[in-house]
Amino acid sequence: MRRVPSVRRRGVALSAAVVVLWCVLAPLQVSAEQFTGKVVGLSDGDTLSVLWEGKAVPVRLYGVDVPEKAQAFGTQARLFLSELVFPQPVTVAIRGTDRYGRLVGEVRLPDGRSLNQELVRAGLAWWYRQYAPLDTTLAQLEAEARTAQRGLWADAHPIPPWAWRKQHREPARPPEPVASATPSAEGPIVGNQRSRVYHGPGCPDYDKVSAKNRVTFPNRAAAEQAGYHPAGNCS
């Protein structure tokens, strides 16, 4: 019976040690997941170079995709980004790394605003559904910008950057007959799960969507409700 208090004291001491260890390690974990540094360069509309421990590291903005330089609004997006980040420090909340070795994260301005969200809010970036499917904030901001026809949404059929990049990586094809650009009213809508673009019957790329990426919808409304957008080369 005399050993019970001793056991209890050892248990209390062990618990206290665990608490102290957690208090020491928790701040280290937080500091490893985010850092604050000055923006020293822009690679494009959605990639920054930020100083971290004396070294400029590339940071890809999480959950957004900005039009390429050769696309409409690509230059505007870069200028918008430049005006917001220079010459002040930003805080990067790291989400991971991409296949190019860049950090991927959410960038916060000194006033607390999310740079990622501001680009989408201004209609100068797309919500990158493929990599941030559960980000309801970006989804809502894109829907609001689309309704207000801000930025790139002033175009009736804006082409997503990921679809534009794919088109320009592929060999050029002979021009399609003009008559094929007008879809017929019959037949299902074909969507591309990778690009989130849909094609109606008679559209130039209607039969070119690969089987592994193909998904069909009964009509345009169903496709758009599922988050797909019309192809830019088909009215």
Outline of the structure:
The protein has 6 helices and 11 strands.
General description of the model:
- The chain is α+β, with helices and mostly antiparallel strands and 235 residues long.
- Helix 3 (115-121) runs parallel beside helix 4 (136-148).
- The chain has helices at 3-33, 74-85, 115-121, 136-148, 161-169, 220-225; strands at 34-44, 47-52, 55-61, 64-65, 89-97, 103-108, 126-127, 189-192, 197-199, 214-217, 229-230.
- The strands form 3 sheets. The protein has a 5-stranded mixed β-barrel with strand order 1-2-3-6-5. The protein has a 4-stranded mixed β-sheet with strand order 10-8-9-11.
- It has 6 helices and 11 strands.
- The longest helix is centred in the N-terminal third of the chain and has 31 residues, at 3-33.
Order of helices and strands: HEEEEHEEHEHHEEEHE
How many helices? The count is 6
- How many angstroms separate the termini? 86 Å
Low-confidence stretches: 16-32, 172-186
Helix content class: 25-40%
**Beta-strand content:** 15-25%
Structural class: alpha+beta
Mean pLDDT: 80
Task: Quickly list its features.
6 helices, elongated, 235 residues, five-stranded mixed beta barrel
Task: Record the SSE blueprint.
Elements: H1 3-33, E1 34-44, E2 47-52, E3 55-61, E4 64-65, H2 74-85, E5 89-97, E6 103-108, H3 115-121, E7 126-127, H4 136-148, H5 161-169, E8 189-192, E9 197-199, E10 214-217, H6 220-225, E11 229-230
Parallel strand pairs: 3-6, 9-11
Antiparallel strand pairs: 1-2, 1-5, 2-3, 4-7, 5-6, 8-9, 8-10
